[in-house]
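Lecture notes, continued. The same structure-token format from the folding unit now serves as the input rather than the output. Read the line below as a description of shape only.
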């Protein structure tokens, strides 16, 4: 389930791309497949990185010298990379989990080269508030969401760090009701037939990409997309 739209990233051959908080690898693997780049995924969770490595084995292109792929356990507050290392940094559905997210933004600014692209996605505020209202456990579990971002405020914070805002879009409208249902029935979600049926719909949509649901989500995303995705460019030195 890809949140970032790579049509708005414009990869160039040889780009170094960092997926910060890559989880089980959906963006770092899809970026590797998108262009001849050096894709790097980092996360605090070693078990998630093991899953990413297992998934990647099906997509590895060892005969393509223009691509490379790497994974590392790393803390977003102290990334093990030199200044200006990356041409693109993706941070998707991560900042809401980090207590000191401002320091994470500072590290992103540090490792991204001038003129580079930064993509940030976070849960959209009003669908997220419904989740919080239905279930405190949803956001109080270990590693859960610590805050609800106001997208405009987050955009302003990022711009103040020397980034130019390019565009935004919303994603995963069909997933918003699914999470509302999970939060409504949090203590017994595993037994809910309604949640199970909705999950089957989402899996079918993901695997088959039918015209009906793809069109429906495109229409609904501006209204109820669960994620907001913003694209920035780091200002050139001296700008």
């Amino acid at each position: 389930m890809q949140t970032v739209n790579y049509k708005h990233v414009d990869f160039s051959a040889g780009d170094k791309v960092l997926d910060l908080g890559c989880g089980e690898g959906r963006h770092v693997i899809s970026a590797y497949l998108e262009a001849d780049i050096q894709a790097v995924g980092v996360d605090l969770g070693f078990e998630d990185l093991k899953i990413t490595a297992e998934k990647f084995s099906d997509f590895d292109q060892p005969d393509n010298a223009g691509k490379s792929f790497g994974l590392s356990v790393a803390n977003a507050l102290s990334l093990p990379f030199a200044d200006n290392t990356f041409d693109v940094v993706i941070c998707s559905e991560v900042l809401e989990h980090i207590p000191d997210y401002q320091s994470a933004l500072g590290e992103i600014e540090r490792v991204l080269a001038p003129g580079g692209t930064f993509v940030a996605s976070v849960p959209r505020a009003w669908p997220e508030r419904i989740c919080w209202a239905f279930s405190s456990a949803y956001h109080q579990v270990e590693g859960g969401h610590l805050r609800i971002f106001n997208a405009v405020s987050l955009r302003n914070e990022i711009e103040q760090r020397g980034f130019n805002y390019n565009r935004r879009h919303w994603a995963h409208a069909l997933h918003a009701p699914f999470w509302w249902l999970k939060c409504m029935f949090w203590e017994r979600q595993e037994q809910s037939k309604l949640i199970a049926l909705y999950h089957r719909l989402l899996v079918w949509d993901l695997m088959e990409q039918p015209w009906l649901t793809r069109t429906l989500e495109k229409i609904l995303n501006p209204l109820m997309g669960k994620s907001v995705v913003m694209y920035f460019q780091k200002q050139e030195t001296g700008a």
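Point for the exam: The two ends are 36 Å apart (CA to CA).
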